[in-house]
């Protein structure tokens, strides 16, 4: 047997033995498919969504790949959506029209039942059901080693059963956080924390989250996970920092 074929077959073995799909980004099995966190789709949640809205779930368009990785550089956000991967709403109108385009006019159906189904984009720090954030990571030590764009997406979930996304995406457990780190528009690792509590300072409105049990998964071959070797002198300055 040709060595290459041998190794290829060996690589298939774990999948055959398990006989199930392993979902990336801490997505979970949903029948024979994966339920993915917002912003991810594809058969194993390893592919980044490209544009669209969070209400489209697994039906969102997918980013194209560079060097085998989903790269969202050329993914424009729809009006009213922003952040890395376009998962954060910026206007009430964006939430409502995104929802309506998937589920029909919620307001008129709800009017008949006397329920107010008006969606609002929550831009406050406090999470009610589940909320997405996106920020640039600006740190001199990091920039010295990796001068490109580093960004972090954070999903905080207090009670997934209260979210309009509950049957669309896997939001994680009650009181959990999921986060992904992106470098130059390619995901490089993802983390989750559980056992979280949210506290709000009633006077300042500041919100803090306290969690236990942080775990992270590095995406093999991505920038921070084996792709570009870091020079020993740089490593030393990182250790001293
Ligand atoms: C799970 O699968 C069902 C049936 O295909 C689908 O309707 C539902 O949206 C999925 N849930 C999630 C969270 O992906
Ligand atoms: C993503 O694509 C852009 C445009 O092609 C490229 O400049 C960038 O380096 C890519 N990101 C990575 C991590 O390869
Ligand atoms: C921490 O995570 C592990 C693995 O996911 C889980 O088995 C354990 O129950 C968690 N512990 C707490 C305190 O949440
Ligand atoms: C149709 C459907 O899948 N409904 C589910 C939506 O999510 C709630 C709460 O997680 C479930 O109880 C429903 O069965």
TrEMBL record:
InterPro entries: EGF. PROSITE patterns: EGF_1, EGF_2. Keywords: Signal. It comes from the Eukaryota. Residues 34-45 form the EGF-like domain. Residues 1-19 form the signal peptide. This is EGF-like domain-containing protein. It comes from Tulasnella calospora MUT 4182.
């Amino acid at each position: 047997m040709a060595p290459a074929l041998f190794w290829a077959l060996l690589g298939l073995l774990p999948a055959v033995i398990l006989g199930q799909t392993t979902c990336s980004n801490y997505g979970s099995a949903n029948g024979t498919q994966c339920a993915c966190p917002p912003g991810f789709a594809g058969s194993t949640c390893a592919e980044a969504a490209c544009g669209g809205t969070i209400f489209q779930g697994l039906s969102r368009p997918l980013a194209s790949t560079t060097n085998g990785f989903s790269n969202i550089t050329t993914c424009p956000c729809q009006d009213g959506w922003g952040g890395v991967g376009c998962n954060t709403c910026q206007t009430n109108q964006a939430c409502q029209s995104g929802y309506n385009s998937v589920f029909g006019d919620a307001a008129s159906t709800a009017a008949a039942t006397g329920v107010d189904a008006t969606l609002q984009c929550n831009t406050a720090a406090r999470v009610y059901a589940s909320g997405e954030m996106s920020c640039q990571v600006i740190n001199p030590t990091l920039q010295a080693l990796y001068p490109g764009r580093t960004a972090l997406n954070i999903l905080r979930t207090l009670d997934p059963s209260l979210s309009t996304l509950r049957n669309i995406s896997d939001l994680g457990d009650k009181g959990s956080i999921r986060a992904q780190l992106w470098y130059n528009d390619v995901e490089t690792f993802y983390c989750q924390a559980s056992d979280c509590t949210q506290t709000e300072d009633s006077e300042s409105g500041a919100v803090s989250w306290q969690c236990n049990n942080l775990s992270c998964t590095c995406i093999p071959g991505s920038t921070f996970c084996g792709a570009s070797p870091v020079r020993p002198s740089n490593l030393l300055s990182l250790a001293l920092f």
